[in-house]
Amino acid sequence: MMKVLVTGISGRMGQAVQQAVAQNPGTELGATHDVGQDVVAALAQADVAVDFSFHGFTAELLAAAVAQGKPVVIGTTGHTAEEKAAIAQAAQSIPVVFASNFSVGVNTLFWLTRKATRILKQYDIEIVEMHHHHKLDAPSGTARTLAEVVCEETGMDYEKDVMHGREGLVGARPQRQIGMHSLRGGDVVGDHTVIYATDGERVELTHKASSRMTFAAGAVRAALWLADKPAGLYNMQDVLGFTD
Ligand code: NAD
Q1: Which residues pair with 179 in a beta bridge?
Q2: SS3 of 233, please?
Q3: Ligand 1 proximal residues by C-beta, below 6 Å
Q4: CA triple 233-29-188, angle to 5 deg
């Protein structure tokens, strides 16, 4: 049985991960953590950490994981460039799965977006996401990953070519642009749509999550997958074997 440390235990995802750990026959709860508690002591009681908390906490968790040589699954989003670099640095010593989304459906959407963008790269590409009104970061980590996939396939640059919302006399839409739109409201768990539009037609790829358990179960699957992996930075596509 793999013992799991669940961080952000009072949060929406922490609660879902605790449930997924209990439901998976290969895992059991080793320890829990939340604000103000000692993560070093908590991690000592576990074989792996699954983290859905706050981006500013990741460095502290990784320092403990590197010191104890334990793998980490990071589902938290909203990291700065420096925080992402620190994750990559830690992954040189321990195995880390870092994914903006752990659902099989969304990872299929990432795959489909890559394929569709290869064919439709001349179309106007826009991304729309909607989440519950408690969500802190925008755009969502998943929407950001979708835009990064589009950038990889078109040669666009995330920092230069993503247009976050539009207001006022912004002028005609340049072709070299990805429109990004974040809607917030109610209890929406997570909707993402990638739109490819041209004269005469439009393609829309949509995923809608209706339960956090889809993310939580995927994160626990990632934790089990990490057990025999060497140090390195992995994503959910690696866990699911989407190599193409
Ligand atoms: P939440 O606000 O319900 O819970 C956050 C938890 O983290 C709380 O228990 C809070 O006390 C704790 N926390 C906050 N600051 C902390 C700190 N400095 N140190 C330690 N713990 C701290 O949020 P949520 O909806 O559960 O989402 C948590 C994170 O997971 C967010 O970044 C969200 O975007 C991300 N998320 C990722 C996926 C995915 O599939 N990768 C899916 C859903 C949510």
Answers
A1: 126, 163
A2: strand
A3: 8, 10-14, 34-35, 52-54, 56-57, 75-78, 99-102, 137, 141, 215
A4: 70
- How far from chain centre, in Å, is Cα 96? 13
135 flagged as catalytic:
yes
Give the torsion through C-alpha atoms of 42, 68, 53, 209, to 10 deg. -110
Long-range residue pairs from 152-158, CB within 8 A, at least 24 positions apart, any chain: 152/114, 153/114, 153/117, 153/118, 153/121, 154/117, 154/121, 154/125
Q: How far apart are CA 185 and CA 183, in angstroms?
A: 7
C-alpha 107 to ligand 1 mean position (Å):
20
Digit-by-digit pLDDT tens for the chain (244 residues) are: 999 999 999 999 999 999 999 999 999 999 999 999 999 999 999 999 999 999 999 999 999 999 999 999 999 999 999 999 999 999 999 999 999 899 999 999 999 999 999 999 999 999 999 999 999 999 999 999 999 999 999 999 999 999 999 999 999 999 999 999 999 999 999 999 999 999 999 999 999 999 999 999 999 999 999 999 999 999 999 999 987 6
* Gap from CA of 205 to ligand 1 centroid (Å): 27
Separation of 89 CA from ligand 1 center, angstroms?
A: 22
Q: Catalytic pick from 70, 79, 131, 207?
A: 131
- The best mutation among 33, 38, 52, 144 to test binding of ligand 1, ranked by most ligand atoms within 8 Å of the C-beta, falls on 52
Cα(7) to centroid(ligand 1), Å: 9
The whole-model pTM stands at: 0.90
